[in-house]
Amino acid sequence: MNAPLRPADLSPALLRGALDTERTERGGLLPHRLPAWARAQNTDGQLAMAESQPSGVRVAFRTAATVVELDTLPTKRDYVGVPARPDGLYDLVVDGRLAAQGSVPGGDVITIDMTRGTFAHTPGEPGTVRFDGLPAGVKDLEIWLPHNETTELVALRADAPVEPAPAARRPVWLHHGSSISHGSDAASPTAIWPALAARTAGVELVNLGFGGGALLDPFTARTLRDTPADLVSVKIGINLVNLDLMRLRAFGPAVHGFLDTVREGHPQTPLLVVSPLLCPIHEDTPGPGAPDFSSLVDGQLRFTATGDPEETAFGKLTLRVIREELARIVAARAQSDPHLSLLDGLELYGADDYAELPLPDELHPDAAAHRRIGDRFAARVFGPGGAFARR
Prior knowledge:
The chain starts with 5 loop residues before the first strand and ends in a 9-residue tail after the last helix. A hairpin with a 4-residue loop joins strand 9 and strand 10 (118-122). Strands 1, 6, 9, 10, 11 and 13 form a 6-stranded mixed beta sheet that branches. The protein has helices at 36-41, 45-52, 179-182, 193-201, 218-226, 238-242, 248-265, 280-283, 319-334, 351-356, 367-382; strands at residues 6-8, 15-16, 20-23, 29-32, 58-63, 68-79, 89-94, 97-103, 108-113, 118-122, 127-131, 139-144, 150-158, 162-164, 172-177, 204-209, 231-235, 271-274, 289-291, 303-305, 340-343. 26% of the residues lie in helices and 28% in strands. Helix 4 packs parallel to helix 11 (367-382) and helix 5 runs parallel beside helix 7 (248-265). By secondary structure, the chain is α+β, with helices and mostly antiparallel strands.
């Protein structure tokens, strides 16, 4: 007869990959990927949503349990005129290997109407993801939370005692980037490209990839500065063009200031700057980017660039301009910073890749492309001669 399930202490000590937690009104635990002081300085709803989506965050514990249940309240997004998104996946990793997946139906829903620029919030109820038939004996479990759903943790139950997993002895890799690093269109939370690269390289991931939020914000730089890490990477470019946020005159000093701040907390840590992956709509056409509403007719969501290529002569940013400027900046800084490196994003995903694995919405890689990007990053950055190669 199976032992009854008993509540476990759902404390911040069980979380990996989160920088902060918030106790909710119902007594649940809400993971955050920006600390409270940084969230207080942010006024952008998109970034607020992105940092609360637990990309790379996992509940990590040691137990002899063969049955585990996790109650959560997810927040899901529903876009008017677009087919419903599938429920987010929870990946169960047992002793380092993916063993099972599950979902939590229901929850809160945010309905977004992109044609009107409006959204509506519909409250829902918590649900349960259950993993049973686990191998006997003491083992280390990680439940990777959905990378694309804000997830309030409500309760944890198991048929054996639960204790926080031992502190990882692996190097900590701290990464910051855009929605591609966040995991847009990846198959599951362990299949976003940073998670794939981290698993291949045997490092502990802290993922600060924020959909629409890689904008050289000073509070993000200070968060990177203050977060312990053995390796740091920052992927810069696509969101600056998407939002038409700044011109070339501001871009260079902003990059220098961002890197200066990171270096205050990590003066000799290997620091990698990654320039943009290929995105044809923005290679030579500035932003802002916008949804292509004509694509909604057939239930597809695609994006387009609305800027004027002629304006690059007046400082408008494109991905090609950003790659050139980042190469110049890193080359200049590397003369006095031997631990600073650059990776051209086209080495991760370029024109040949687009021909084989095109961007379904013209902006985000699909699951197969995530795997390719993760494999290439692991080989080029963590492999022999790479910026993060073991020394």
